Amino acid sequence: MTTQTIQPGLTPFTIASRTLTSRLFVGTGKYADFPTMQAALDASGTEVVTVAVRRERLYNERGESLLDFLDTDRYTILPNTAGCFTAEDAVRVARLGRELLDQLGNPGASWVKLEVLGDKKTLLPDPVGTLEATRELAKDGFQILCYSSDDPISAARIKDAGATAVMPAGSPIGSGQGILNPANIILCLEALKRGDPTYPVIVDAGVCAASDVSVAMELGADGVLLNTAIAHATEPVMMAHAMRKACEAGRQSYLAGRIDKKLYATASSPFEGAISYIPGE
Amino acid sequence: MRITVNNDPRDIPEGTTLATLIHDLGLDAAPCAAEINKALIPKRNHQDHQLNEGDTIELVTLVGGG
Fold first, then answer.
1. Which of A114, A122, A50, A127 is nearest to A84 (CA)?
2. Contact criterion met (CB < 8 Å) for B66 and A226
């Protein structure tokens, strides 16, 4: 009897020269407290966590720092440019993030999760600013994981501008609306992977439930990036577990090859030999 | 002389270096990145970088984010 592989298909993948086992990228924001964040990150199985770059609080009453609760030997830290509405600011913040990660000696030092936002209400990306910042940061040697809309033309332009990975949004950041337009995610995947099947495409933003992660992975995404869905769940650690399993299940479901959808039913048990009355026969 | 640190005006002695400012603010134990007048100053240069009247300084670190 042969031993069956427990998790067929869950092979490592490579992004920005790093080989990762987990395809889940998890944010560190909005948790009730740092110990909960720490436990949730552990439960998610993630190997890459996003962080933000912000002013030092010169008068910090609590004295707690994110870095006291983040194992920088375990995780690749992916600094973001969240809160930037111009290419110029995003480039500044990316360089500050690289400087901080350099000081930590973390492999995420050359990485940036690039966001150039259009407005505060939707947090949708500004396509022009995103392209300008991508070009500038690519020249500066960054590995750019770029937040994008789910428009396949924008996504392709961002890749052409030098992004290491494109991360189309399922729906607006933190909205919990899930994957609003699966057809566009498929078009993004086609546009980005044409002639380049290993090009990383990560669905970023809007994910709410484990099923959203599975849907993204079943469409053929290489990974999913999420934050609020775990941080603001009633039980963040349990949700982190669910997201991990959903990501793995979705990947396996994609690789296993789903059946085609049909309008009519197809019986699983044979009619041949049935002793019952069968209408129409 | 007067400088601005993280949007707050602050008076410092002439000849203060960036490294001294960061130390005096108690920020030298953890990673801290510095920008002066929108130009990044790498940590290796903090010791030698003298601050000037009117400098606008941003001192940043990593916080939770998505």
1. A114
2. yes
- Fold adopted by A13-256: TIM Barrel (3.20.20)
| Domains recognised in chain B with CATH numbers | 2-55 (3.10.20.30)
pLDDT beneath 50, residues of chain A: 60
Q: What is the pLDDT of residues A104-117, one digit of tens each?
A: 999 889 999 999 99
Q: Are strands B33-36 and A202-204 parallel, antiparallel or unpaired?
A: unpaired
Separation of alpha carbons A201 and A43, rounded Å: 23
Determine whether A113 is an active site residue: yes
Q: How far apart are CA A219 and CA A253, in angstroms?
A: 9
| A51-97 residue pLDDT tens | 999 998 765 456 678 988 999 999 999 999 999 999 999 999 999 99
Q: What is the pTM of this model?
A: 0.91
Chain A residues at the B interface, defined by Cβ less than 8 Å, are 27-31, 37, 50-56, 58, 65-67, 77, 79-80, 82, 92, 95-97, 99-100, 102-104, 173-174, 225-228
Rg (CA), chain A: 21
Q: How far is CA B48 from CA B31, B32, B41, in A?
A: 18, 16, 10
Return the SS3 of A195.
coil
- The domain segmentation of chain A, as residue ranges, is 13-256
Determine the Cα–Cα distance for residues A199 and A188; give it in Å rounded to an integer. 11
**Measured between CB atoms, which of B40, B43, B63 is closest to A103?**
B43
Q: How far is CA B35 from the centre of its chain?
A: 7
Give residue A61's pLDDT. Answer: 56
| Tokens at A39, concatenated | 């436990």
Residue numbers in B near A227 (CB within 8 A): 65-66
How many angstroms separate the CA of residue A221 from the nearest CA in chain B?
19
Residues A9, A23: Cα–Cα separation, whole Å: 12
ipTM of the complex, rounded to two decimals: 0.94
